[in-house]
DNA sequence: GATTGGATCGCCT
DNA sequence: GGCGATCCAATCG
């Protein structure tokens, strides 16, 4: 019945490998406005990417791959367009997307999403009601989207998690800033977020 | 083998 | 603003 029909967001296509196989700062900026989705057993969950950070690999002291390959960060070593998830502070997961050529172990941290669909699932998992509390930080969005260590290494081109194309709005600008929560390379301008967006983790 | 610090968050003052 | 939760990886702080 038309009167009871609800709009349901569903990805129509996913970004190709060539999108991810570029320099990490370019990918971090261009991910803004696209849609991260998870075809979860509980239902489709998705959010618009509004904040990212670039981690550049062997030349970036703040990057986990800075001192070489370890069991934790091995997903950054290899092909682009895959998931790198790690546990932080013993209780939260951080969700990253691998980038660049296989020889460069780099990734983009997804720091914040604007909730789009699956919002009731997000509310249940986060135990929060306000939209702004669901995905406004890397640990928050991983919990809301249902991401944990089992997603580490998965492809974003063939699996239940992917990125589908979106657009920037006419009045949106990309703001560049320094990365949050790190202790090395603290002044490198590798954090990017959308202007005037209430869902970013910090201004 | 032990210690320390962390790409965080939520609750406290 | 400060701090505790809680586990893992890096370092021997």
List keywords for this structure.
single chain; 203 residues; alpha+beta; eight-stranded antiparallel sheet; 8 strands; 28% strand; globular; DNA-binding
What does this structure look like?
This protein is an alpha+beta fold. It is 13% helix and 28% strand. It contains 4 helices and 8 strands. Strands 1, 2, 3, 4, 5, 6, 7 and 8 form an 8-stranded antiparallel beta sheet that branches. Helix 3 crosses helix 4 (138-145). The model has no long low-confidence stretch (mean pLDDT 95). The chain binds a DNA duplex (13 and 13 nucleotides) through residues 53, 55, 62-64, 67, 70-73, 86-92, 94, 96, 109, 111, 137-140, 179-183, 201.
SSE topology:
Blueprint (H helix, E strand, L loop, with lengths): L16 H4 L3 H7 L4 E6 L2 E13 L27 E6 L3 E8 L6 E12 L1 H8 L11 H8 L15 E4 L9 E4 L13 E4 L9
Antiparallel strand pairs: 1-2, 1-6, 2-5, 2-8, 3-4, 4-5, 7-8
Helix pairs in contact: 3-4
The protein binds a DNA duplex (13 and 13 nucleotides) through strand 3, strand 4 and helix 4.
Q: Give me the number of helical elements.
A: 4
Largest sheet: 8 strands, antiparallel
- Report the helical percentage: 10-25%
Stretches with pLDDT under 50, minimum 5 residues: none
Rg over CA atoms: 16 Å
- SSE string, helix = H, strand = E? HHEEEEEHHEEE
Task: Note the gap between the termini.
Answer: 44 Å
User: What overall form do the CA principal axes indicate?
Assistant: globular
Mean pLDDT comes to 95
Tally of strands: 8
Specify the structural class.
alpha+beta
Task: Please state roughly what percent of the residues sit in beta strands, choosing from under 5%, 5-15%, 15-25%, 25-35%, 35-45% or over 45%.
Answer: 25-35%
